[in-house]
Amino acid sequence: MISTSRDGSIAARLATRLGYLVFRGSTSRRALALRRLHSALQKGLSVGMAIDGPKGPALIAKPGAAWLSESANKPLVMLQVNAWPNIRIASWDRTKLPLPFARVKVGWSLS
């Protein structure tokens, strides 16, 4: 699920080009987006979303992902990605973008 914001449009185009099926959603229309994600899970697809939501606060999980996992009876896998070297963009969550040839670390936990 990717935000319906202008910044989300950039991410949605990139994800689509990479072959992902994209659902656009926002906190104001979360019920519709969560229903679409729930349906995708029931069909055996994997889904992904940023758990801190489009308005933050950054790194604080909103309840949507946990609800989705529980209601679809599917595991919740949390990923954390970090890269060095990177640049921070001037966004509310201070997103980091990896520079070319950056070393990328991916951590995960299952709940």
Provide an overview of this structure.
It contains 3 helices and 4 strands, in the order E-H-E-H-H-E-E. With 111 residues, the protein is α+β, with helices and mostly antiparallel strands. Helix 2 packs parallel to helix 3. The model has no long low-confidence stretch (mean pLDDT 87).
List the helices and strands and how they pair.
Elements: E1 2-3, H1 6-17, E2 24-25, H2 30-42, H3 64-72, E3 77-88, E4 96-110
Parallel strand pairs: 1-2
Antiparallel strand pairs: 3-4
Helix pairs in contact: 2-3
**In terms of per-residue confidence, which ranges show pLDDT below 50 for 5 or more consecutive residues?**
none
The biggest sheet, with number of strands, parallel, antiparallel or mixed sense and barrel status, is: 2 strands, parallel
Q: Report strand order across the widest sheet.
A: 1-2
**Helix-strand pattern:** EHEHHEE
Q: Count of DSSP helices?
A: 3
Tally the beta strands. Answer: 4
Average pLDDT works out at 87
The end-to-end span amounts to 20 Å
Radius of gyration: 14 Å
| Helix-strand makeup class | alpha+beta
Strand residue content: 25-35%
Shape: globular
How many domains make up the 3D coordinates? 1
Share of residues in helices: 25-40%
